[in-house]
Amino acid sequence: MNKNELNIENYKIKTAPPTAYYVSEFITKNEEESILSSIYAAPKPKWTQLSNRRLQNWGGIPHNKGMIAESIPSWLDVYLEQIHNLNLMGGNRPNHVLVNEYLPRQGIMAHLDGSLFYPTITTISVGSHTVLKFSEPAVDDADNRNPIFSFLLEPRSLLILQDELFNNYLHCIEELSEDILDDSVVNLECCSNKYIPGARLKRDTRISLTIRHVPKTTAFKINIGNK
């Protein structure tokens, strides 16, 4: 794939609310292997362990007072440049990458990405697939919304979320060891492989690189303990 000639409008998921783009095989297998090698070569303190996954922040740690901008290594910055060339963020260059590691049976609860970021998120998946599920926000605590549609994210793929999907739909990854490709998966026609309805895909370890722009940055130390 020649990323310099990629017209992102050709990759819009037309069966979902506005706006999502899905590019299968956005990176090569060699690039995937290089990314995995670099992530796992990072020093142990770079990892933050959560109850259901672990993660790395590159570029700084986002905070509502501003992100102290940090340099991003060249092996990762090349993908920020590729995303920047797609002109998805109003001319702003991405400046933050959140790396999440998901083992089988690990996921993330339904959430919005919030106002700390320019309202576009881009995610490159490596290592394994997952299924990202979407639901409308609950009206109150007693309103438990079930997922209404989902996307299959293949390894080496790029997903872009903007507009209504970014602002108004919660997204989650369920804690499963395998995914069933039922009628809720609405992007199968965009995928690189052909999948039989009802197919079961066993999960392996997946790394996601969520690349985005944090508008509010600072070069000064922030006292995040004060409100």
Architecture overview:
- The chain is an alpha+beta fold and 227 residues long.
- It is built from three helices and 15 strands.
- It has helices at residues 29-40, 74-84, 163-168, and strands at residues 20-23, 47-49, 54-58, 67-68, 96-102, 108-111, 120-126, 130-135, 149-153, 158-162, 170-173, 178-180, 200-202, 206-212, 217-218.
- A seven-stranded antiparallel β-sheet has the order 1-10-7-14-5-3-2. Strands 6-11-8-9 form a four-stranded antiparallel β-sheet.
- Strand 2 and strand 3 form a beta hairpin.
- The longest helix is centred in the first third of the chain and has 12 residues, at 29-40.
- The relative contact order is 0.25.
- One of its GO terms (molecular function) is dioxygenase activity.
- InterPro entries: AlkB-like, AlkB-like_sf, ALKBH6, Oxoglu/Fe-dep_dioxygenase_dom.
- It is found in: Nucleus.
Q: Which overall shape is indicated by the principal axes computed on the Cα atoms?
A: globular
Rg from Cα:
17 Å
Question: Which structural class should the secondary elements be placed in?
Answer: alpha+beta
Work out the oligomeric state of the chains in this entry.
Answer: single chain
| Fraction of residues in helix | 10-25%
Please count the beta strands (DSSP E, at least 2 residues each). 15
Q: How is the largest sheet built, in terms of strand order?
A: 1-10-7-14-5-3-2
Q: Low-confidence segments, ≥5 residues, pLDDT <50?
A: 222-227
Largest sheet: 7 strands, antiparallel
